[in-house]
Amino acid sequence: MDIATGPLVERIARVLAGERLSANGHGDQESAGGAVDAAWPDYRDAAIAVLHTLRAPSAAMAAAGDPAVWERMVLAALKEAQPAEV
C-alpha cells in the first residue's frame, strides 16, 4: 500500500486548486504547477470541508471495510490540519 508523504488537507487543496487553474481541469493554464503551489493555501478551507464530509462513509464504503477505522483516519487528517499549538 502506498503511503502519502504530505498532509491530506494540503493534497486535497492542491487538487482543488489544480482543477480550477489547470487546462487539465477547468482552468486555462497549460502548465499550472507553479500557480497551484502558490494558490493551494486559498483552498485549504474547502479541503477541510471535504474531509468533514468524508468523515461518514457511504453504505458501499462501510460494506468494504471498517467504518470506525475510516472515521478515525479522517479525524486524524483533520487534527493534522489544525495549527500547531504554541
Structural commentary:
Helix 1 packs across helix 2, helix 1 packs across helix 3 and helix 3 runs antiparallel to helix 5. By secondary structure, the protein is mostly helical. The radius of gyration is 15 Å and the shape is globular. It is built from 5 helices and no strands. The model has no long low-confidence stretch (mean pLDDT 89). The protein starts with 7 loop residues before the first helix and ends in a 5-residue tail after the last helix. The chain has one domain. 62% of the residues lie in helices and 0% in strands.
Helix percent band: 55-70%
Number of helices: 5
Give the tally of structural domains: 1
Our estimate of the beta-strand percent is under 5%
The Cα radius of gyration reads 15 Å
Describe the global form.
globular
Would you list the SSEs in sequence order as H and E? HHHHH
Structural class: mainly alpha
What's the count of strands? 0
| Average predicted confidence as pLDDT | 89
Low-confidence parts:
none
- Report the biggest beta sheet as strand number plus sense, adding barrel if it closes: none
Q: What gap, in angstroms, lies between the N and C termini? A: 34 Å
Descriptors for this entry?
mainly alpha, single chain, 62% helix, 86 residues, 0% strand
